[in-house]
Amino acid sequence: MSVSKVKAALVDFVKGEKDRAIVLKGDWGTGKTHLWKQVVLQSRDSFQKRNYSYVSLFGLNSLKDLKKSIYENKVYRERAHIASDESSFEENLKDISGRFAGWMRKGSSLFNDVSALGVKGIGPMVESLQFIRVTDTLICLDDFERKGSGLHDREVLGLISLLVESKNCRVVMLLNDGTLKSGDDFFSYHEKVFDYEVTFNPSIEESVKLVFSTNNKLHEILEKNVTRLDINNIRLLKKIDYFAGLLKRTLEGANDHVIEQALHVLPLAILSKYGGDAAKVDLDFILNYGGGHIDTDLPGDEVDEAEAMLKKSIEEKTNYLEDYGFTRCDEFDVAIIDLVKKGYADEESLEEVIKALEAKIKHDSEIALLQDAWNIYHASFLDNDDKVFEAFDLAIEKSLVNFEVSNLDAVACVYTEAGRADKIKPVIDKYFDTIIVTKNIQKKSDVFRWPEHDYVQQKLDEYFDGLVVEKSLAELIEHAYKVSGFNNTDVRNSAARKTEAEYYDYFSSLDDYNLTHYVRMCLKCGQVSSPEQHIQNSYSEIFVKTYLSLMKLSEVSLLNKSRMGKFKGYEKLFAQAEEELRLQQDQTE
Mind listing the pLDDT tens digit for each residue in 242-266? Predict the structure, then answer.
């Protein structure tokens, strides 16, 4: 049933002459409560009933709790769109106090009976008075499937029947379809209690219109994207609207491309985090998605079942993202996704988005020529190699200095795949010789996504292997000891570049209970074997300079000679490493 027809049926229910009990049912999150509240807001002044009470059964554990909640949430129909508050409590208190005083004046038998029971009888009497005052009321019962285990189906249905038949009330129950089991008491009694059921199953377009306004630029973009993602869950749409509201001020003044990107990844991220079974991809997959091809098996390839299932899952997720138009995750996407992952927006979170936004705008403006080249590349299957590579060549000539590593990697892949590897290799060399040093990349985690192109990978590894950290030898060794030895490229290379004199000064002045641990860590560098000569050399430099310093220190005093005894086992390894370094130096010269 369409939204307009369901709304018309509900309006007829609240305004009609006959008291009834009905069910408004639909899938979880389709917006039943949202639609009902719209009906209440728009029709409250013309309710047939004088009072209104909205009650969530969530956690209610007894019939007594339910009766009490109906009374406590009772308001006049004019205030039906406002949750019960202090003023409504005062109204109900005046009502029951007046009734109580009247009974006292008339010498009610109920009061006499309670008086005989003493103070303990006051509570039950007040509860009885409360429920007696529940009359001429439109009642909405929500969250039936989340009621406490102590409140039974038949008790709720029996109370609904009593309210309609004897208390001049009418009741609507909001029910999530498919949450009840066929053997539940609800199905044994519901036909005797409810006059009819209204099924709410809105289309995506109808759900969107329930949440998004039509005269809002952000909503227009979001409507297009949530439709492509098949989102008709009102809770998800409201969450998307909430985060879009948080981003609205941040996005003010941004160009259309940036706004489109923010509102493209936002609903995808929210669906992935909160969509449950409706989510086709997880956030980690999105964050690591770089687009590109999917490995396929050739006929005759042997693939075990687990590997086949993994490949199928990756293929399905990749196709899903490509169908949506999500080609790769960049730093700006990450900032939006991190906001969604956090679940709320504080000042720090929004500052991160703003920083990413500013960087995105700056980068896009500086690299517009490259974007133009990509637009030509993706626009057709025409035989237009010359046109495509003229555009890329122009972008490289004018904007290479503005390329990030990821930009260079993507362009290098295209050139190589098109048989132009010889043309792009000098460009890669130039980038790593003169440009990357301006990017302030100090560690591998500073690279947003590790490159796929083999030569770009090689040059990036060489760049990190050549980095030097400007710290004293003491700071480097202490850091290595506390973290992961000399596995960190920056720390290892920096320590290797320290002079023999610096090693001697360090160990001769060291007064620390960890001295033996520090020395052994440095000496173990001599036991490392690496196929990469430059890596092997950095370990050997640390080892040789350490052992040379220890030998010199052992000659200073007999006590030091004794102390050196525990490190004598490295003599043969030292001689071998020293000779290898000498031979390499001779070859270089």
Answer: 999 888 888 887 778 888 999 999 9
Q: Which residue has the higher pLDDT, 403 or 29?
A: 403
Q: What distance in Å separates the CA atoms of residue 49 and residue 195, rounded to the nearest whole number?
A: 18
Are both 44 and 109 inside the same structural domain? yes
Within 10 A of 378 (CB to CB), how many other CB atoms are there?
9
Q: Decide if 155 is inside a domain.
A: yes
61 close to 235: Cβ distance less than 8 angstroms? no
Give the C-alpha separation, 418 to 270, whole Å. Answer: 38
What pLDDT does 119 receive? 44
Q: Which of 184, 202, 220 is the last residue of a domain?
A: 202
Count of positions (residues) in the chain: 589
Query: Side chain identity at 449, as an amino acid letter?
Result: R
Identify which of 419, 373, 416 has the alpha carbon closest to the alpha carbon of residue 396: 373
Q: How far is CA 472 from the centre of its chain?
A: 40
| Domain assignment of residue 504, given as a range | 473-588
Residue labelled with tokens 């001697």: 504
Q: Taking each helix axis from N to C terminus, what angle separates 347-366 and 256-274, rounded to the nearest 10 degrees?
A: 130
pLDDT-derived band at 7, boundaries 50, 70, 90: very high
- Look at residue 291 in the predicted model and tell me its pLDDT: 64
Among residues 387, 453, 457, 401, the alpha carbon closest in space to that of 430 is found at: 401
The Cα–Cα gap between 372 and 390 comes to 11
Torsion of CA 446, 449, 453, 455, to 10 degrees: 10
Burial grade of 45 (CB within 10 A; 0-12, 13-18, 19 or more): exposed
Domain-terminating residue out of 465, 485, 510: 465
Pairing of strands 74-76, 51-56: antiparallel
Q: What confidence category does residue 535 fall into, taking pLDDT thresholds of 50, 70 and 90?
A: confident
Residue 574 pLDDT exceeds 50? yes
Q: What token pair was written down for 239? A: 């969450």
The pair of three-digit structure tokens given for residue 23, joined into one six-digit string: 């069910």
- Residues forming beta bridges with residue 175, ordered by sequence position: 25
Distance of alpha carbon 121 from alpha carbon 125, whole angstroms:
6
pTM for the whole structure: 0.57
User: How many independent structural domains does the chain possess?
Assistant: 4
**DSSP codes, 324-361:** HT-----HHHHHHHHHHHHSS--HHHHHHHHHHHHHHH
